[in-house]
Specification:
5-stranded mixed sheet; Heat Shock Protein 90; Rossmann fold; alpha+beta; 4 domains
């Protein structure tokens, strides 16, 4: 062993310590995944070397045949995994093996419950990579040298997976990384050729470079020099015909490219030939990454050009609202020296992006049709991100709209399970609109006064409660030829759903109440833009409607929360002339008392709409005054 120099002991980042502790305890039921994770890392290191060697062939150091070697020593109780990929220098070893430079780490740790079964799912979502070695090892050593560095700049990293690690400079003749696992007592089963072969076949058969193990010689003398044999298929999975690939292989490949422990919900494998030639393998994950809502976080597909890895997160091939999709795209039409900058524009990229987007939307459509429960799980996880689609992707607006799911007055509770096709399948005769209502929460809008006339007439209304919904509906104006109508906005016109008699009666009532309208305008003054008789109410005395062009409550709250100036807008006060309170108000001769009662009704209508009162103290004062009068 060569002499170690510049030896130092460093502490793990706090998050690493917590992660190590959790993994050792939470993932104990599926220990063998450590090998999949280490092989996956080794494969990535080979990909990175291939890519860097395009510009600097000297990095290959005369050895262009990339491979992973796996060996074991029963007596020493060790398992060794070695690759001749890109390798790491001292700074990279400290950075990669001592810290987690991943956005969302704090959120991840905050979400842990202490329940081992639940936490193992979370850990899988987060991706554990190298640290999974400590599930089976009580000491891990790493020997690495970056391609292109001199042999004297090898690095030796060692840790027992507790609070710290040692790092030293050593001589290392070959580029790449060698990991030595010193197995814990009771984990000797992994120092066995048959066991390691089975794990490789199970989890890593799809890895595109050879994984070699020492050849086993039964009943014959072992040769003086170790003989190696490839134990995996060693061909890129996406290049093989679909008919030859089992579901389990697709699932394991997803775990490799998605750095996930769970199976995907769906996948689509497609080879395009003709004007453009490329292969894509796209996956819909079952779980969301922690940085899903950070639009600037790294995302995208693994890009290969003619089977050569180019980049890890090429985000030019799918729009931002599909940023949760994982997978691989391998093109024959791009040059090997393609860069992120070149990928920004060009007819080839545009054409591929358009086709891949359509493919993903088709895959989601199929999932919704054939596996409704899986699609419902997808919707709960990624629905809010998909809602960004109509604003970003005009060409596919109708297709995306068909994938959206909503709660509705005809649905069960706040479950967002009603599609627009479901809604249209239940419309009343003569109904030519799709009615919806937005609000802060399902509890707040399910009994909204705005729904009263719809309940009376048996008309279904979609209930939209995600923060993004009002913004979404400003881009989604119609579906299947039917316009969307916000039931809280403007002057409600039910078209053919109101009979001629109904319309005539409404006009007569409005005419008869002109005096009350004028008195209410005088009492409410600057608080309202208009006062009118309501056609929406059957049980409540009054509501506040929003002007056709005004911002709704949801958008106002979002803008206010982000510190933006919100344009001033006053509501329309609508009253129910048949309500006893309105009849009592109409008969009130005292104008001061009339004004107090009008303001109480206005404030109650604001509260029913989910708004906060501008002057809560004045409301309480008026209400108390009224209660005192009633009890006198």
């Amino acid at each position: 062993m060569s002499v170690e120099t510049q030896k130092e002991t460093l502490g793990f980042q706090t998050e690493v310590k917590q992660l190590l502790h959790l993994m050792i305890h939470s993932l104990y039921s599926n220990k063998e995944i450590f090998l999949r994770e280490l092989i996956s890392n080794a494969s990535d290191a080979a990909d990175k070397l291939r890519f860097e060697a395009l510009a600097k062939p000297e990095l290959l150091e005369g050895g262009a045949e990339l491979k992973i070697r796996l060996s074991f020593d029963k007596d020493a109780k060790t398992v060794t995994l070695e690759d001749n990929g890109i390798g790491m220098n001292r700074d990279e070893v400290i950075a990669h093996l001592g810290t987690i430079a991943k956005s969302g780490t704090a959120d991840f740790l905050k979400n842990l419950s202490g329940d081992q079964k639940k936490d193992s799912h979370l850990i899988g979502q987060f991706g554990v990579g190298f640290y999974s070695a400590f599930i089976v090892a009580d000491q891990v050593e790493v020997f690495s040298r970056r391609a292109g560095s001199p042999a004297s700049e090898g690095v030796h990293w060692s840790s027992k997976g507790e609070g710290d690690f040692e790092v030293a400079t050593v001589d290392k003749a070959e580029r790449g990384t060698r990991i030595v696992l010193h197995l814990k007592s009771g984990e000797e089963e992994f120092a066995d050729g048959w066991r390691l072969r089975n794990i490789v076949k199970k989890y890593s058969d799809h890895i595109a470079l050879p994984i070699e193990l020492p050849k086993e010689h039964q009943g014959e003398d072992k040769p003086a020099e170790l003989e190696w044999e490839t134990v995996n298929r060693a061909s890129a999975l996406w290049t093989r015909p679909r008919t030859e690939i089992k579901d389990e292989e697709y699932q394991e490949f997803y775990k490799h490219v998605g750095h996930d422990f769970e199976n995907p919900l769906a996948w689509s494998h497609n080879k395009v030939e003709g004007k453009l030639e490329y292969t894509s393998l796209l996956y819909v994950p079952a779980r969301a990454p922690f940085d899903l809502y950070q639009r600037e976080a790294p995302k995208g597909l693994k890009l290969y050009v003619q089977r050569v890895f180019i980049m890890d997160q090429a985000d030019q091939f799918l729009p931002l609202y599909l940023r949760f999709i994982k997978g691989v795209v391998d093109s024959n039409d791009l040059s090997l020296n393609v860069s992120r900058e070149i990928l920004q524009t060009g007819p080839v990229i545009d054409s591929m992006k358009s086709a891949l987007t359509k493919r993903v939307l088709d895959m989601l459509e199929k999932l919704a049709k054939e596996k409704a429960e899986d699609y419902q799980n997808f919707w709960k996880t990624f629905g809010q991100v998909l809602k960004e689609g109509p604003a970003e992707d005009f060409a596919n607006k109708e297709k995306i709209a068909g994938l959206l799911r909503f709660a509705s007055t005809a649905g069960e509770g706040d479950e967002q399970s009603v599609s627009l096709a479901d809604y249209l399948g239940r419309v009343k005769d003569g109904q030519d609109k799709i009615y919806y209502l937005t609000g802060e929460s399902y509890a707040q809008i399910k009994n909204s006064p705005h729904l009263e006339v719809f309940r009376k007439k048996g008309i279904e209304v979609l209930l939209l409660t995600d923060r993004i919904d009002e913004w979404l509906m400003s881009y989604l104006t119609e579906f299947d030829g039917k316009q969307f109508v916000d039931v809280a906005r403007g002057d409600l016109d039910l078209g053919k759903l109101d009979s001629e008699e109904d319309k005539k009666a409404q006009e007569e009532v409005a005419k008869a109440k002109e005096g009350l309208i004028e008195r209410l305008k005088g009492a409410l003054g600057e608080q309202v833009t208009e006062v009118r008789v309501s056609h929406r109410l059957t049980d409540s005395p009054a509501i506040l409607a929003i002007g056709e062009q005004d911002l709704g409550l949801q958008m106002r709250q979002i803008l206010e929360a982000s510190g933006q100036k919100v344009p001033d807008a006053k509501p329309i006060f609508e009253f129910n002339p048949a309500h006893p309170l309105i009849e009592r108000l109409d008969a009130e001769p005292d104008e001061d008392r009339f004004a107090d009662l009008s303001h109480i009704l206005f404030d109650q209508a604001a509260l029913a709409a989910g708004d906060s009162l501008k002057d809560p103290a004045a409301y309480v004062q008026r209400l108390n005054k009224l209660l005192v009068e009633l009890s006198a």
